[in-house]
Amino acid sequence: MVFVGVRSVPGRMAATAGTAVLATALTACSGSDGPAKVAPSGGTGGAAGTPAAAPTVHPFTGGKSGLRNPVLAVKIENTRPAMPQSGVKAADIVYVEQVEGGETRLMAVYSSQLPKKVGPVRSARISDLHLLPQFGHPAFAFSGVQSKMKKYIRRAPVDDISQDNGGSAYFRGANARPPYNLYADPRNLLKQAPKAEGPRDIGFRFGPAPEGGKPVTTASAKWPAANMGFTWSAKEKRWLASWGGTPDMAAEGGRLGGQTVVLQYARTTRSKFHDFLGSYTPLIHTTGTGRATVLRDGKSYDARWSRPSEDKGTSFTTADGKPMTFATGQVWIVLLNDGKPYIP
Question: Is the pLDDT at 10 greater than 90, yes or no?
Answer without folding.
Answer: no
